[in-house]
Amino acid sequence: MAAAMGLPVRTYEHLEAGKGRISYHRLLLFAEATSSDAFAISAAVAMKDPQFAVRCADNKLAKIMMIAMSELNDELGPDIVYVESGLIIGAMTRISKELVERVRRRDTFAETWLEQGTARIHAVGRKPIPE
Length: 131
Description:
Helix content is 72%, strand content 0%. The protein is mostly helical. The chain is flat. The longest helix has 39 residues.
């Protein structure tokens, strides 16, 4: 890990032991070396939920949100101060609800598809098994 982060082994050992200084740059190096989401790691600390960082490692949820915020900042510039808190809360709530709905729908679709497919392949060339 030290080599992947471009750090001396001793420095990495100190970081791992909680004795070294963790800078934003080192957090980025760690995220790159582990293919994780540096923004999710930072958010996990603020949320006091380390599992958030683990859950976001593959889909890069926090990184995607930060990119979207950066694009909003580029688009609005100084006018970003006029975005009302209520508007932000409403937009984030709608996005969250839509994501939950789509994930739940996907899970249901996958379960149903697997159940039907399993029944079909088990029934090929055989009489149905009485229950």
